[in-house]
Design brief:
single chain, globular
């Protein structure tokens, strides 16, 4: 039994490798976006209670994947026991903790929208450049599968909350996301200070050779908020296109109704 689980969670599952934007990276991206879009198509016209139930399921999966990782890490040769880096001091792991609070507690509805926005933003940024999963590991080894599935499910939870109308974006209220980013910055700084140099939220060391370490706190805030603005822009563009298509269909069917 022990040997089986050691093999199951090992990096030595195959000779295949995942690298930036190779076929396996694209596969995980398409899988994530495909699931998010499929869930939207399947449940867009369902009842409100069904939509909420689907969002709850993905919330359960999100926190479940995060918690289960702490039990599986000691069984994987990718880690030396339980990794301190997985503590909730990065924006993506902080979102995992926040998801069940805003999904299951109606008293926190006021902050659900920024949590959704930052969940989409942070998971999307990681999936586009998965820096912690670019060591040439097999694409279905535990460390790769878990990180892509975790970020993919987090993204899908945020996406379907938005696409199914559980939350709506209002650009005049995007200041909440900015405040949230600043709070995460302070929390990550606190984590780095008491646990050591883990570079949570990338505020201690630059991951780009052309940026000095000292500027990283500012650049991280600008980068995350910039992507958040882009997510808002895509949201409004999608709504605009959908509205134009709906109007075009309405104008196309109106003459036929008049003829009858």
């Amino acid at each position: 039994m022990k040997e089986f689980f050691a093999w199951l969670f090992s990096e030595n599952t195959s000779n295949l490798k995942i690298t930036l934007y190779n076929g396996w990276h694209i596969f995980y991206l398409l899988l994530t976006f495909g699931i998010a879009i499929l869930m939207t198509i399947l449940f867009k016209n369902k009842s409100q209670s069904t939509k909420e139930r689907v969002c709850r399921i993905f919330a359960y999966i999100t926190i479940g994947l995060y918690v289960a990782d702490f039990f599986i890490m000691p069984l994987s040769d990718s880690y030396d026991g339980i990794s301190t880096y997985k503590l909730p001091f990065n924006i993506c792991t902080i979102m995992a903790v926040m998801v069940p609070f805003v999904q299951f507690n109606k008293k926190l509805d006021k902050i659900k929208t920024p949590v959704v926005a930052l969940s989409i933003t942070s998971s999307l940024m990681w999936m586009v450049y998965p820096g912690t999963a670019l060591g040439g590991q097999p694409p279905f080894s535990y460390i790769i599968f878990q990180t892509f599935m975790y970020h993919g499910i987090l993204f899908t939870w945020g996406f379907i909350n938005l696409s199914l109308g559980e939350v709506t974006f209002e650009i005049k209220k995007i200041w909440k996301e900015f405040v949230g980013i600043l709070m995460i910055l302070v929390w990550a700084w606190f984590g780095n200070s008491i646990y050591g140099d883990w570079n949570w939220f990338f505020i201690q060391e630059s991951i780009f050779p052309f940026l000095p370490d000292q500027i990283m706190p500012v650049m991280v805030v600008i980068s995350v908020f910039g992507v958040c603005l882009a997510v808002y822009g895509i949201y409004y563009l999608t709504k605009y296109i959908a509205s134009r298509i709906a109007n075009k269909k309405e104008h196309t069917t109106s003459p036929k109704l008049e003829e009858k």
